[in-house]
Amino acid sequence: MPDPTPLAVAPAAVSGAAVLRPAQSSFRTSGHASGHASDMPRPAWRAALSCLLLGLLLAGCALPRIGIYQDPLSGAEHLELGRAYEQKGELDLARREYAEAVRDDVPQAHLFLANLLFQKGETEEAESHYRKAIHALPEAESAPARNNLAWLLLTRGEKLEEAERLAEEAVRLADDAHRRSFEDTLEQVKAARNK
Known about the structure:
mainly alpha, Serine Threonine Protein Phosphatase 5, Tetratricopeptide repeat, two-stranded antiparallel ribbon, 2 strands, 62% helix
C-alpha cells in the first residue's frame, strides 16, 4: 500500500541538492486525536512542560516558610551588649538586650534593667527588677541592688523604713569602692525618716 503522506521538498545540507521528506501533517492517520502530549507537535509539548515546571517552581518559592532560629548570643553576651548600648545612649536597644539576658536567667541583668527603668522614670517596673536582683544574686553581690532600691523608695517618699533597712544592708555588704556612696544613701534615708 502506498504511503498517503505527501512528500515535500526541504533544503539539504549539501547545497544544490534536494531531499524529499515526508511533510508534517496536521492530521493523524489513525482517525482520532487522543489529547496526549505525544499527539502535540514537539515544540508545543516542550513549551507546555516548561510552563508547568516554571509554575511549580514559582509556587514553591511563594509558599511561606517558618524558620525557628536559635539565638546565637548567650545571656551574658546579651547583658554585655546591653551595657554597650546603654553607654552609647541607645536606651531602647539596651533595654531589649537586658530583657533578653533576664529571659536567659542572668541574675545581674535584673539590676541593669532596673537601673535603666529607674533612669527612664518607670519606677514600678524598676522596683520589681531590683527585688528580683536581690533575690537572684548572691548576698555579697546584691549590695548595689539593695542600695538602688533604697534610693528608689526614698525618691518616691514611701516605705522609708524598708529603704533604711535596705541601705544598712547595702553598707554592710559594700566593697571599698562603693561604701561611701551607699553610706550617703543611708544618711539621706535616715534624714527623710526623721522629718
